[in-house]
Amino acid sequence: MAKKEVDGEGLNIPNRIKALPVKRSGPIVAAVIVVLLAAMLIQGLITNPRLDWPTVWKYLFNENVLEGIRYTLELTVISMVVAIILSVILAIMRKSINPVLRGVSWFFIWFFRGTPVYTQLIFWGLFAVLIPKISLGIPFTSVEFWSIDSNVVVTAFNAAWIGLALNEAAYLSEIVRAGLEAVDPGQTEAAKALGMNRTLIMRRIVLPQAMRIIIPPTGNETIGMLKTTSLVTAVPFTLELQFATNAIANRIYKPIPLLLVACFWYLLITSILMVVQSRLEAHFGKGFDARPVGTKGKQAPYDPPYPGKSDGEPKDDVNKINQTTFAGLNA
Q1: What average pLDDT does the segment 304-328 reach?
Q2: Which pairs from 14-18 meet CB under 8 Å and 24+ separation?
Q3: Could you give the CA distance from residue 218 to residue 173 in angstroms, rounded to a whole number?
Q4: Fewest CB atoms within 10 A around its CB: which of 70, 179, 305, 307?
């Protein structure tokens, strides 16, 4: 009863306007059209004999396909781990006061972002031709302490993940740099006032806060890396998922079903990576999320009431957002 009195219900108000709900026929029509198109697409996928679904199910768990999935995941994980480490180093070098470090970082990013990854992979495949022997010795002399054949070190698998990692590091370094620069400089100044050195400030103050900005695009880059592994045939590395399905398709002369097999596994792995990305975003976003204040939010209404509202007025319509709260960071 109290709510009705507050909202004006039950009061004798002259010339009360009886508002009618707005008819929203547009969204309903659009939804019907989308559902029809989706149904037509699904019906076409199921009934099209050229897709050859029996062949798809036959080779979905083929041992060569599963082996290709394993190598694809290994390339993705190793390349991303190396790329993330290099990107943090490059981003810190870009912010260094040393002009030599800044120049080296800029040149690395300029070169690897400016050339196609496919071209880079071809060069890594020809590494043993360009540099037949890897050796250690006195620079600019013929004195050698140790040497080894390049083919032993830079195998096809190693050349594949090295090429992917170096290319990805150039892109991730800009993401990391953007995240570092998004942290309030006052955080660094406060840490310096406490006597913390630059390394400790970066590790305990700046990076934990920058992760909230770094994680989403890094997740997208990881998904992109998963699909970029299909280009390692340029090395050539011939054991990843795309090449494995292509080899089966060339043998049985049925490319479309094997393409569907590759699509299924790429979509499945990408879906898992998206779930992991969302969990990481939620973890590193703790303390940064804004939430509504009042009976609709998780917090109880403030007392005294909101500014501009009397004691009897509802507070649910006040769309106030908390200021960003930071999780405690112990130095």
Answers
A1: 44
A2: none
A3: 10
A4: 307
